[in-house]
């Protein structure tokens, strides 16, 4: 029996559960959330326990998925459970298209109508959200979040744990550093360094993060 335990019962957890349900692979779906005493169900699925207690019960599930929006924490929990010998699910919505030559890492979510094109490499614990597009030969390092409607042209590289806001676009061959934030609706036409927040069209650095 295929069983999926989702860590995190917030908004992103609801999205993950909906996609997991649409995939039609799982005989059982349940949640772990530290608010389990008052949060009994999420998206019609049972909340079993807090994070620590649920981790000890992962043997009852064939797969787990970390559904936490904060990039660093999502990646930390994913790697911890993988190192403990548990199997992370990779979720691809049925309406998404992932080229057979693309590589998608463990614990990554590819949302409805998203596209991951030829030669692209998407790391572990990434979110490629609704209708986001990752064109040819792009590299997304671990823990990256592309919000809905983000468009990456060819050969873009996005560093570890970076977030790109709703509707932003990135021109071809751009490098965006790790742990940076690109604001919603931005147009990235110049490289963006590590540890900054940038926004605008064209995107300009606003502050260090």
From TrEMBL:
Positions annotated as active site in the UniProt record: 136
Annotated ranges, domain PglD N-terminal: 4-77
Record keywords: Acyltransferase, Transferase
CDD domains recorded: LbH_AT_putative
Chain sites annotated for binding acetyl-CoA: 145
Pfam families: PglD_N (PF17836)
Keyword Acyltransferase tagged: yes
Annotated substrate binding sites: 69
Family statement: Belongs to the transferase hexapeptide repeat family.
Designated name of the protein: Sugar O-acyltransferase, sialic acid O-acetyltransferase NeuD family
